[in-house]
Specification:
The protein is of the alpha+beta class and 424 residues long. It contains twelve helices and 15 strands.
């Protein structure tokens, strides 16, 4: 089934070798990986997701589309994986890899978002753990190969003729540039710091202080930045990812449907107690996630997609994508993304670690939050090595009596998506 690209344009044209817009989910299993079970499980999983078994094509009008790709989704025995949309990936926008007891799934962020990627992994873990451990796991809440697939999963809801409000014109003051403020301009080693927190402990803390995992993480990071730069004139502003499916009333859509709510740590808030600050942040999220507000943001994204489609050359599209990315990154110091509790059902007992890696907007710091097997896992993804902001964040946790574990520090490795216009 041919799928014309629409909202995918912007994310595809932003992606390049230096900043590949790929979601990489890394899962450490309880035991060594069984390659036979792995192959069978990936094949079964991809039968359930035909809209992810696609190859990027271009028609005579220079409009891009995804065509059906019946080649097997590749599985490589490595930690690096393979570049997407290449012969090594059988020209898929998704690939798997494994090493020892780690499984990795890579998928283009233009194809889906964290919610969509979680669905794939939920199906994969069901099949893999059933086969690997010869157990009968419950099928409840799992998308399976024999399912009838609803049209709502296929269709991009933003392409439909839906009633959207006029796009709002949002104007922000410049956000504090963390690279510039920390004098990290010569430190370009992309790094991921992984921190884990007990799920029950962190949730209790949130309930007691009127927070949520995403807003409290954004608040701790804002407080940390403010203490580092008390005299900074530029705004301390964190973007929290927003699932647009809710406003669109299309919960099954597989596309990348993520917007953002901007949480500004205003001067007048800085002397408030933590719970009052958390209430203020939750209020900002509530105000910006009202249906009318989210739909207005979607209308703006739709207009951008239409503009990019109307352009006659890929060079123009790439230039526009870069300009949009630069503008968006100037509005925020960092971004916090939390899909919600993973809920990998009975297969979760076989999972030991879970990591979410991707590229951030521009050079903004990105915190990806996962909740798997009783722990919150926070991946601090940054375009530099310095632990300056991680250490300041950990100090906030310590001051508030939250126990954490710094699991590891790793170089950020993401596969490239080979695209025909990347020579620009």
């Amino acid at each position: 089934m041919e799928q014309m690209l629409f909202t995918e344009y912007r994310t595809l044209f932003i992606s390049n070798r230096e900043h590949p817009h790929v979601i990489r989910l890394r899962i450490r299993m309880r035991d060594l990986i069984d390659p036979i079970a792995m192959r069978w499980s990936v094949d079964q999983t991809m039968k359930r997701y035909p809209y992810f078994c696609v190859e990027l094509k271009c028609n005579e009008n220079n409009q891009y589309y995804f065509a059906e790709n019946d080649r097997p989704v590749t599985i490589s025995r490595s930690m690096q994986g393979v570049d997407l949309n290449t012969a090594d990936s059988n020209f898929h926008m998704i690939a798997f890899s494994w090493s020892d007891n780690w499984v990795t799934m890579d998928i283009s962020h233009a194809v889906t978002d964290g919610k969509g990627a979680y669905e794939i992994i939920r199906t994969f873990l069901y099949y893999y753990c059933s086969k690997r451990y010869n157990v009968a796991l419950s099928e409840e809440g799992i998308r399976l190969a024999e399912d009838e697939i609803s049209p709502e999963e296929w269709i991009n809801p933003v392409m439909e003729d839906i009633d959207l409000p006029e796009p709002g014109r949002v104007q922000f003051s410049k956000a504090l540039d963390l690279v510039e403020a920390g004098r990290l301009g010569s430190d370009w080693t992309k790094t991921v710091y992984n921190i884990t927190i007990d799920e029950d402990e962190f949730m209790r803390f949130n309930v007691e202080n009127d927070g949520s995992p995403a807003t409290m993480t954004a608040l701790f990071l804002s407080r940390a930045i403010a203490k580092l730069y008390p005299e900074a004139e530029d705004s301390i502003r964190i973007c929290v990812a927003v699932n647009q499916r809710i406003a669109l009333k299309k919960p099954l859509a597989h596309q990348n449907l993520v917007g953002g709510a901007f949480l500004e740590y205003k001067d007048k808030m800085r002397d408030w107690p933590l719970d009052r600050q958390a209430t203020a942040f939750r209020g900002m999220v509530f105000a910006q996630t009202q249906e009318e507000k989210v739909l207005a943001a979607i209308a703006s994204q739709k207009r951008i997609a239409q503009m990019m489609m109307s352009m006659t050359t890929d060079k123009e599209r790439a230039a526009m994508a870069r300009q949009m990315d630069k503008m968006a990154s100037s509005y925020m110091c960092a971004c916090v993304s939390y899909v919600g509790k993973a809920d990998y059902k009975e297969a979760e007992q076989y999972v030991r670690d879970f990591r979410t890696w991707t590229s951030s907007t521009g050079d903004a710091l990105l915190v990806e939050i996962s909740a798997v097997n009783g722990r919150f896992s926070l991946d601090f993804i940054q375009p530099f090595f310095s632990p300056l902001y991680v250490n300041a964040f950990l100090s906030e946790l310590e001051e508030n009596g939250i126990t954490y574990d710094l699991q590891d520090v790793r170089h950020l490795e993401l596969p490239n998506v080979k695209l025909p216009w990347t020579r620009f």
